[in-house]
Automatic annotation (TrEMBL):
SUPFAM superfamilies: DsrEFH-like. It comes from Glycomyces tritici. This is Sulfur reduction protein DsrE.
Amino acid sequence: MTEARHHLLVETHHTPDRLPACFGQARLLRDAGVESTVLLVENGVTAAGPSPELRACLDSGAGVLVDDYSLRQRGLGPDDLGDGVVVTDMDWLAGFLLDGDVAVVWH
């Protein structure tokens, strides 16, 4: 079995007092030379606002995406996101998962 060339960390939770661990995990993967992307869905999208942890994740080269439907359901829009966060949809996720060369961690 070969290692996946890309890791996708899907985060569904966020509380105001604690940022999700996915930002740090994605940064550590990038530091180890592994491609990584964070996808924030459901309540996880509320973690996409500007923060030092988000900035460090993006600066490491990891991608950070938010689900457009989850964003709208929480009354948020692109102006509420940190610089570098990309809005996407579940069609993107389905296509990415079908790639077959991706490891998915769903929080």
